[in-house]
Predict the 3D structure of the following.
Amino acid sequence: MVAKENRQNFCVGKASVQEAPAVRRLNIYGDGQGDLAGTAVSAGLAAVYQKHSPNHRLIRMSGVQQTFVWLCRAANAVIEQRPMQGVLMNATKETEKMTTGKAQIRLTRSSAAYWRITFDNPPLNVLGPQFVREFGEILAAIEADGDVKVVVLESAVEGFFLNHSDFLADMKELTNMPQGPTGLEAWPDILVRITRAPVVWIALIRGRATGNGSEIALACDMTFASREKAVLSQWEVGVGLVAGGGPMARLPGLMGRQRALEVLLSSDDIGGDLAEAYGYVNRSLPDSELDSFVDTLATRIASFDKWAIANTKRLVNAASLPPDVEIAAGWEACMTSIARPASQAKIKTLIEQGFHRPGDAENRLGAYVGRLGR
């Protein structure tokens, strides 16, 4: 309930925000003009609301008859759940500005229990602030949905599953994002929540999984790679960086300390078959069989009882996951390493050689990184 005293009202498009000292809530009213025009406007509105109320986050947007649920981070309690009918029109200029760009991630619901997330940020599928924001919104929807059991991650960009960070973007956009529900910074928070979510996450790797791509695959519950086209890489040490998404904490448990150090310190490209032999991925499959194998497996798991899936995963997590403090330490070391002049000089040299543009440097990054110090 919203306290009556000291209440202030202001409008964001069709949304009326009521503020009180202890609690805030968002009432969203439809205008009866048809179906909701996609989730982009809603996501933009949510971002506008969060600008004014940073202690809250949108945790559910579902169905044509939209239901919006707001969660108070501090109290970990739902503030309000309210249906919305119709189109949200005439959003503020700030909302429109935030939603006019092309989405970098697509969410497809194959069924209520089986969802697919497609990375689509051509030409290289690099990870920047917009990607992190979009993925965070989708992840919140998955966490709030009671029916989804399986999520498959894949790419629509030829040659790239998910790539390294966008070094041409403003890094402050990423580092200034609020910490997530785990208390970790935005990107490691997403990775930890993937691993803990009571659904099965499957990475389908076709193309390069470099840096962030490797990290999100390691956060998933299962990973399947194209024998001919998959390339995994933790390339960071080769340019004087420390990886920020937790591979130092996760890889030793998968493949042992020595192989983990080989992957991390060689900064080299690893193909599908070697990745399978090392335990980096579950299986390396012929590219022509990869899609059908993953779809069959995901469909099978999605037919099972969610309670049994969630509790089995929870118990495996308890026996196998690194503590969050190890993930946090990696992020801190990563942020420190980015500011080092030696790292910046190597990245600059790599960019001069074609890094961050379609071509040989991106396609054979391991080879280019290996020549930097010679």
Observations:
- Residues 1-100 have pLDDT under 50 and may be disordered.
- The two ends are 66 Å apart (CA to CA).
